[in-house]
């Protein structure tokens, strides 16, 4: 059976990642480190043949995707189906702030309640899983026998891993979700299979990064 190869990349770092502030659907740009990470991811994938690059339409993902597009020559196609989980009124706050102000909701979030929806029009984990599964099926089915890149967010990467390994939504996370990490999966109509996860070898050259941090 033909399959679609997927390279899934989390966006580069943002200032809110550093502050552990909930981004959700808020459109936060990459910081200097994130821009460097995006460039490194693009360089690492320069020799890959891609039939398409699909990206969340939020700028932190789009900027990362564009770095991949520049080195591969493949245009970037924004797709709102790849957005981060919507956290409603939690967006812009840290978990500690949510815990202090809404302890009952914070507890349900921490326990990974699949049906918990944050106040203000957020998404539950079950809703996020359904959206990501539908989006991946829709995009990957258009490229059977080929290879595509999906550039998105930590919550999306987490859901891809769970879908590929058949892990429950409440299973404790034992895998990393590094910014600008390169992850590889295989898609068939039967679902996703994990090929490789959390490749950050392209981020090991610390010289430029250290200059940015100094």
Give a quick summary of the entry.
This protein has 214 residues and is of the alpha/beta class. It is built from eight helices and six strands.
Q: Which key features would you list for this structure?
A:
214 residues; Rossmann fold; globular; Phosphoglycerate mutase; Phosphoglycerate_Mutase; His_PPase_superfam; hydrolase; His_Pase_superF_clade-1
Q: What is the CATH class name?
A: Alpha Beta
CATH fold-level topology: Rossmann fold
Shape: globular
Number of domains: 1
In this structure, how is the largest beta sheet organized?
A: 6 strands, mixed
Radius of gyration: 17 Å
CATH architecture: 3-Layer(aba) Sandwich
Protein name: Phosphoglycerate mutase
GO molecular function: fructose-2,6-bisphosphate 2-phosphatase activity
Keywords: Hydrolase
Binding site for substrate: 10-17, 60
Could you describe the 3D structure shown?
Keywords: Hydrolase. InterPro entries: His_Pase_superF_clade-1 (IPR013078), His_PPase_superfam (IPR029033), Phosphoglycerate_Mutase (IPR051695). One of its GO terms (cellular component) is cytosol. One of its GO terms (biological process) is negative regulation of glycolytic process. With 214 residues, the chain is an alpha/beta fold. It has a single domain, classed as Phosphoglycerate mutase-like (Rossmann fold, 3-Layer(aba) Sandwich), CATH 3.40.50. 38% of the residues lie in helices and 17% in strands. It contains eight helices and six strands. It has a six-stranded mixed beta sheet, with helices on both faces. Helix 4 (95-101) crosses helix 5 (103-110). The protein is globular, with a radius of gyration of 17 Å. It starts with a strand and ends with a helix.
């Amino acid at each position: 059976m033909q399959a679609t190869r997927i390279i899934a990349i989390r966006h580069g770092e943002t200032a809110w990642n550093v502050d552990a502030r909930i981004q959700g659907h808020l459109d936060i740009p990459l910081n200097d480190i994130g821009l460097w990470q995006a460039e490194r991811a693009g360089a690492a994938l320069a020799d890959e043949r891609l039939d398409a690059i699909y990206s969340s339409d939020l700028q932190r993902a789009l900027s990362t995707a564009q770095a991949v597009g520049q080195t591969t020559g493949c245009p970037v196609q924004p797709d709102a189906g790849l957005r981060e989980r919507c956290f409603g009124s939690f967006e812009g706050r840290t978990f500690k702030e949510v815990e202090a102000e809404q302890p009952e909701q914070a507890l349900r979030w921490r326990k990974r309640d699949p049906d918990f929806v944050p106040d203000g029009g957020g998404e539950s984990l079950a809703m996020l899983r359904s959206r990501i599964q539908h989006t991946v099926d829709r995009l990957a089915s258009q490229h059977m026998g080929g290879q595509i890149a999906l550039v998105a967010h930590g919550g999306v990467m987490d859901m891809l891993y769970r879908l590929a390994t058949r892990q429950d939504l409440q299973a404790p996370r034992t895998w990393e979700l590094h910014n600008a990490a390169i992850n590889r999966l295989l898609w068939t109509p039967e679902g996703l299979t994990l090929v490789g996860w959390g490749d950050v070898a392209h981020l090991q050259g610390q010289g430029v990064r250290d200059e940015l941090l100094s």
